[in-house]
Amino acid sequence: MKTLKIGVIGLGFFGGRHARIYADHPAAELIGVCDADFSRAEEIGAALGAEAFASVEDLLAMPELQAVSICLPDRLHEEVAIACARAGKTILLEKPLAHNGEAARRIVEAVEAANVRLMIGHILRHDPRYVQVYEAAAPELLGNPIHLRAKRNGIRSTARRLGSSSSILFYMGVHDVDAMQWVARSRISSVYARKVEMLGTGNEDALYAVLNFENGAIGNLDYSWAWPDGMMNGFRSAFEIVGTKTAAAMDVTDQGLYFVNDGGTVGGDTHLWPEINGRIAGALADELNHFVQATLAGRDYVQHYREALDAIPVLDALALSAQTGKVVEVNR
Amino acid sequence: MKTLKIGVIGLGFFGGRHARIYADHPAAELIGVCDADFSRAEEIGAALGAEAFASVEDLLAMPELQAVSICLPDRLHEEVAIACARAGKTILLEKPLAHNGEAARRIVEAVEAANVRLMIGHILRHDPRYVQVYEAAAPELLGNPIHLRAKRNGIRSTARRLGSSSSILFYMGVHDVDAMQWVARSRISSVYARKVEMLGTGNEDALYAVLNFENGAIGNLDYSWAWPDGMMNGFRSAFEIVGTKTAAAMDVTDQGLYFVNDGGTVGGDTHLWPEINGRIAGALADELNHFVQATLAGRDYVQHYREALDAIPVLDALALSAQTGKVVEVNR
Amino acid sequence: MKTLKIGVIGLGFFGGRHARIYADHPAAELIGVCDADFSRAEEIGAALGAEAFASVEDLLAMPELQAVSICLPDRLHEEVAIACARAGKTILLEKPLAHNGEAARRIVEAVEAANVRLMIGHILRHDPRYVQVYEAAAPELLGNPIHLRAKRNGIRSTARRLGSSSSILFYMGVHDVDAMQWVARSRISSVYARKVEMLGTGNEDALYAVLNFENGAIGNLDYSWAWPDGMMNGFRSAFEIVGTKTAAAMDVTDQGLYFVNDGGTVGGDTHLWPEINGRIAGALADELNHFVQATLAGRDYVQHYREALDAIPVLDALALSAQTGKVVEVNR
Amino acid sequence: MKTLKIGVIGLGFFGGRHARIYADHPAAELIGVCDADFSRAEEIGAALGAEAFASVEDLLAMPELQAVSICLPDRLHEEVAIACARAGKTILLEKPLAHNGEAARRIVEAVEAANVRLMIGHILRHDPRYVQVYEAAAPELLGNPIHLRAKRNGIRSTARRLGSSSSILFYMGVHDVDAMQWVARSRISSVYARKVEMLGTGNEDALYAVLNFENGAIGNLDYSWAWPDGMMNGFRSAFEIVGTKTAAAMDVTDQGLYFVNDGGTVGGDTHLWPEINGRIAGALADELNHFVQATLAGRDYVQHYREALDAIPVLDALALSAQTGKVVEVNR
Q: Cβ separation of B326 and A326 shorter than 8 Å?
């Protein structure tokens, strides 16, 4: 059978995992890895049997290359995604689509001009908990959405690590803005947000927002990476939607997994990208499997990039509201 | 030893419990119960050995009466509390202090003019979970507050039962506004709130808000009684505060108690007013015990009524913001 | 009104709390405290306004003394309880009744010969979670019990602290043996137990047992104090019973309370003896309140001492089975 | 690339899922499905593009068939597994290996005589929670195992559905016996078990056991399918191991997923075989992926069949102990 010849651009936390998952996938062939840090590319390339590159252009020059995963900081998405589109490659672009609305639209224009395929790495679309909440929120089951809430909280060392290279909205918050519009079957029309910066990490500490949906529902966002580092599992997420008929919720205080020593108790990841029997499993592996198989089969991706694009103007509005202290309309 | 001769005005869900708790308390003597529904007063009076009244004036005319619990709908607090103050009685007034800021201030003026004692029934000040969060949030432990969140969600039959006689803010939300200012050691200065009314209960379905504190922290309120009636325990509350040094949180998805039959699983109350061995225990009993013993001893109550008063203008601001869609300054 | 003049013998973890709770109780008067360590007795006596003693005889010589709490290591229960009975005092005896069946029976004989009242400190009879499980397990609700399980696990530093002065069965396990017979409305007839001692604490690390009830149900005991000290809350308990009609369960992984710093997350006690607003609340306070009020009123205690006595032969059988590796009949 | 030509025998709950997972797998080709109920085979065959059979012999006669999944009731494993082995096919055999020790050994003999490959469907070896507990229990991390516990409880309608066609030990309990020996790195040497049968389902209601390991650790088994059908998620599992250095545990009261309507709250499966975006994901998919890829690559399976075989004598001993009321040595 055919395999998808694929390369990975950006070999940080996510890029390294993308590379391993493709190398393990029976219908994918990882033929190139690219990182500005060439020794990193060499190390991973050697481990996984792929050619190493320090420049995107060189990777894109491989004639047999069919697709790429782009796993770079969001500010670099625009340039690299456009280059990949112009080179005719199918693209899996890690979230967020871009670092602001204009860059996001330029990426989409380039992709459409080049007539290539694009999928955004919105992992929650492959997370069994969020998918089941989405399904339970179908109008015939839920009725009309009344209110919905998303929480994504992490620890302060994450903020310190990222410094000023990203923002809580674009790095972390995009998941839930996308999920909310997806689950509510409605777009966010206006927002009020407040943020705080006290820890001096170079990044926001926390952002709270109230959202208004086109269908009349209200939304609540709770983002933080101000928690002390001892938070169980280093992160907590929750999502709920209440409708006129029924409600659905998920809340992950922990994942039911505990490791105890004399100093304390820590948790473990059982859903996102757990490493099991020498391979990466979980929602990230399912997301990449979907990308590979849908690309090979010419089938639609579960999320059209225009739907992913729909989150970016909301993030822009949240950022503006947090900055000005005013209610802001989402500008699409 | 001395006992506190006490009466209860309003014999609904809370009033009935106040009466039973006083009847069981070694340092209290329940001498009168009053309800507009005289048969209800007679029933409870007979069961607990107290005289029954249909009018507040008649109860207040008992010469030996020293104190009263007022457990009436919030719109009736003003008239009755002022009457009790003028009659020289020590008052335990169930939350909220009143149904709006002006009524609240008039109650406080009457209490101060009559030089009587007043305690507001803010049960969370006696709930071991909220008290321990408050203590963990002491500045020397927490550092400066960065963000804090309170959730209080219940089921729709509660909203239907109350109809238009109260509001989600004054009936339920006052607990958390009071708790937030208490735990944060800071007052809320401005708010943005949105509410929804789709279920046609005569009451709000849900209200979300973002709050700004004088000390720079941000707050998030999540109130709902839109959940379908099958919600575990019929209610869920959560509270968390993250500071520059540490964080503290409580979250009660359930209370670790499950009753299972073929139709489903339900929970039970283990903290608020559980009935154990024929008496009411829990935070409500501890609150009334505090009222009785502090009144008899002439000691301060754990919360001064002026601190309780401080929540009311915030509720007014939240109501106005939810109505107008604007950010509103709290008017003290 | 009358107050109960009471003394406390043994001022360790529990005795210190008994003393504080009585000092705070409106219907009790703490008039004496006794500990072999006289300076400890003096310190507590001074703080709470009670006379200090180093010898039980001297405390018992106080003519106005009506009742005592005995909070000593289980091996000392026999001698002191018999002395208190002979002195005509009403006794609250911390669990376990005694350190073996013979000592337990001698205590009961002395109490009955002296015609004094005796209550055993089985706190679970006042814990809202266990009481509600007991009530849900009434035959008309539960049907016939099929199987029931109790877990009580703690940390290894507890075992080290106790050294060889007690055993996991008598120090900790008695709670659940008593609770199981209470909830099942049936007595345990035979047991098979295994224990392990690897940590060298001077105490058992863990004990597991399968129990047979007279009514045909089976039971499962899970005791440990081998967990590393970083276990959340330092302890975990669970209890469940499944019957032919319904089931009831409680499981306390944590109490929904979290304190987070950079090093980790710890929990807090919200049910047993939390210290709130300067007083000890929770199940221990409710237990002592019951003792005081039932003694003053001449009412039955919620648990007759003969029912508490019923647990001791089971503990003896468990110890024998763990030692011999054989199934052992409970010898009553 | 090569694909594994595979067939599925037995198209019940598991067989139907095996078939779908293979049909979706890029390196597998589902070429035949077999069920005594031919219309069932036809239906699934038509949906998934595989040939339908009513007899195992006919399926095995397909010359290009390389491997089979056997998803039949445990009493039928022996005959069919031996036939598949003699036909030279690689076998994935759903748990338990067989319905007793002799049948299990005969299967292994036939497999070894025919020199074919055999993997047993022990899904917990692919469940991220159990795998991470196994890894945390490595001797250099855990120290020596002191005690370990496994709980697997389900609802009574499961017992009714299975009637007398299987037993709680072989149908459900084998998972945990296998997991315990795997995680403890030690074999169970003797057992004491008790069971109950009150519900009249044709099957056991519950079984409790205490286990002795060769390495001195003790074990506790808690199996039930007596819970009323309203149990959240219809099932609950837990596993923990405490060692001389550290401990690891998992406990799934629910999976953090709640669907609420006016009648109650139910949960959802997020780990075992959730259906996401039209395909089956989770541990079952990971298990079958492992089977396919390891078979094609000629690599070892994560669990050798002899290790799976090791659980069967323990189940036999548990059954005998439950029947006789005696401690029973495991007979290997």
A: no
